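TA notes, week 10

Several of you asked for a full example with nothing omitted. So below is the full record: structure tokens for the whole chain, then the designed sequence directly under it. When grading your own attempts, check the secondary structure regions first.
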């Protein structure tokens, strides 16, 4: 049984989201890895970009384009290699980033 969802004028169901996820999985599995040696490395550091902030930004971007928002991606989410790092501080009074400044 498919669950139908009405979002901002778009009628979608659970099958739509499953197919969208399946396409992403197939793309990831068929990705050809670069086995060469890197000459340069570009490091993007997004301080304060937790999962909630990234999700809200993705939805906002989609909605400003006239879509529901959940189906889009931010540019860096399409990079071949992405890592997430969560840091914390024992006292919760200030973050490690502020201390280093």
């Amino acid at each position: 049984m498919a669950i139908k969802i009405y979002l901002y004028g778009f009628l979608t169901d659970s099958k739509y989201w499953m197919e969208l996820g399946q396409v992403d999985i197939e793309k990831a599995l068929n990705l050809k890895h670069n086995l060469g040696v890197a000459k340069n490395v570009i490091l993007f550091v997004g301080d304060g970009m937790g999962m909630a902030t990234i999700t809200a930004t993705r939805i906002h971007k989609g909605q400003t384009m006239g879509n529901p928002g959940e189906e889009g991606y931010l540019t860096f989410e399409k990079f071949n290699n992405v890592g997430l790092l969560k840091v914390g501080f024992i006292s919760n009074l200030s973050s490690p980033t502020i201390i280093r400044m």
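Residues 14-29 form the longest helix (16 residues). Use that as a sanity check on your answer.
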